[in-house]
Amino acid sequence: MRKVIRDVVIACLKVALALGIFLLCNFAGLYLFDLAGIDRKVYAGVCDVFISLLSLGSLCVFWRIDRKISGEFISFAKPLPSRTVCSAITAVGLTGLVVIYMLAANYLSDYINSFKENLDQYKDAVNRYSEVSQKEVPLWDSLIYIVALFTIIPLSEEFLFRGIVMGQLRKAAPGWLALLLQAVIFGLMHGITIHIGYALICGIVLGAVYMFCDNLWMSVLVHGIFNLLGSALPTFLALEQFGIPKETRLNTSYIMSLVEYFMMFPAALAFVYLWYKYKKSREANSLTAEEPEPVEEGVPC
Predict the structure, then answer these.
(1) Residue 290, pLDDT score
(2) Which tens digit of pLDDT belongs to each residue from 6-26?
(3) Which helix (H) or strand (E) segment is 256 a member of?
(4) Do the beta carbons of residue 94 and residue 205 sit within 8 Å?
């Protein structure tokens, strides 16, 4: 019992330390930009990349030190092609699910004032140009911001939440509980009520994909595709510098939404397939562990 309590306390302290490092890197990055007199609203792309790299580098140091002390806790098992494809399909379906979630939030905002206020806050938070005009932002920074949305940002977040947080929690708790706890933490870290709801859903799916595939790169893949379809492409289409006609933007967004909706059922099947392969793998490992070691026969003199 004492060992269990000790493991839980140590895991919670390490999770708190990792989250503290992440938040400290965010505050340090923002402070350095302000200190240098760089407008973070205008150069949000460079700022986000700098903070993500600072966070990722610091967390890598934490990971390397801790794994030398207490062993590896992040898995990078060799990915199977079938699981990679299923993970990608799951990502597209997850985007459709979140679109439906946002449609429901929009519907409720017509009747509930608190929902409307939270929805407005969410739209301002995710809109790159809510506080600054596109004309003030250099095109190259807008492109850096768009690329960062589906590359370095998912990588740093997955390394923290699925890699370190979930990895530490799995040392002291059952896998399913560690999965739920990291999803709750992931949701709460997004701050806004509307955002917390779908971040919680995404956290559960991302954690499950990581657990089923036993490879952090698979959750990075899912997160990257999700951000690409949900944020990066819409932001790119909205860039005034490219002069994309409004009708083209609307048609493209409509087609993307249709694809995401129709991919929800295949995504559910792909998710079940990942779970099935995970279950079979665990059963096989369990049987292997239970097999008695062969007894060597004595050699007559």
Answers:
(1) 62
(2) 989 999 999 999 999 999 999
(3) helix 246-262
(4) yes
